Amino acid sequence: MLVTVKGFPGVLRVGDLEIAVSISDRRKSVRLTVERDASVTAVAPPQVSRDELVKMVEAKRAWLYSKLAEHRDFGEARPAREYVAGEGFPYLGRSYRLRIVESGSEVRLIRGRLELNRGGGAQELVRWYCRVGEPWLKRRIAPWASRMGLEVTGLRVQPLGYRWGSCSREGRINIHWATMQLPPTLIDYVLVHEVAHMLQPHHNNDFWRLVERTMPDYQERRERLRRLGPDLWLPDVGG
Ligand SMILES: [Zn+2]
Predict the structure, then answer these.
(1) 66 Cβ contact partners less than 8 Å away, ≥ 6 residues apart
(2) Distance 86 CA to ligand 1 centre (A)
(3) What is the rounded distance in angstroms from the CA atom of residue 74 to the CA atom of residue 38?
(4) Is the Cβ–Cβ distance between 211 and 200 less than 8 Å?
(5) N or C: which end of the chain has fewer CB within 10 A?
């Protein structure tokens, strides 16, 4: 049986880790699991405190990271990019070449080229993905959420480490900026996945049934996402 204690079930954040915590009065100790999609869940006994949970996660941090490295969808091999004219960067499933400009403005996509200031690099491009991603994803997620009878109260685009997205029970969704490199049909899968977490934090049968009802071909998309992950551009700029 699931019972509610202060703040849980809910999401616990420890550094860049997000752990979906549920409470079970059948448990004597905390069970920490890295799910197949690189999300982390914990089942804790009712008397556990937030501090104890944080301590335990910190103690297991090295183990968690090694597990995440095995499971992450992003994969390992990642083509390095140079910030020179002609270099290609993916956006919504297509590759756009860089044009180096002297204009002094921010990165922009114009006439099929990504304009980057001379001397600019990963940080400027990541900021661009975040900036264009937020309005695009907000428009894109609304019809999916309403189809599922839910309302997304906030959406932010940011670095999320190994994860495509995360979701709070209050309906606030975070999406990894690198998601904007994917084709829209795969972004849709990421969005439906996160909206489904508003109802069900765990990847259990109820969760996948909900995803399937909304998106009958989700398994195919999920598989494509797995294969595409390693090809995405993911520079080391804090996530
Ligand atoms: Zn998930």
Answers:
(1) none
(2) 36
(3) 10
(4) no
(5) N
Quote the ligand 1 centre to 129 CA distance (angstroms): 22
Report CA(195)–ligand 1 centroid distance (Å): 9
pLDDT tens digits along 57-96: 888 887 787 777 665 555 555 667 899 999 999 999 999 9
Q: Where are the beta strands (DSSP E) in the chain?
A: 10-14, 17-23, 31-34, 40-44, 88-91, 94-101, 108-110, 113-117, 154-158, 165-167, 172-176
Q: How far is the CA of 186 from the centre of ligand 1 (A)?
A: 14
- Residue 84 CB contacts under 8 Å (≥ 6 apart), including other chains: 98, 100
Q: What distance in Å separates the CA atoms of residue 100 and residue 182, rounded to the nearest whole number?
A: 24
Give the pLDDT score at 77: 52
- Token representation of residue 199: 């109802």
Compute the distance from residue 35 Cα to the ligand 1 centre, in Å.
Answer: 8
What residue spans define the domains of the chain? 10-71, 88-231
Residues with CB under 5 A from ligand 1 (ion): 39
Ligand 1 centroid distance, CA of 164 (Å): 9
d(CA 42, ligand 1 centre) in Å: 14
Task: Specify the fold of 88-231.
Answer: Zincin-like (3.30.2010)
State if pTM tops 0.85: no
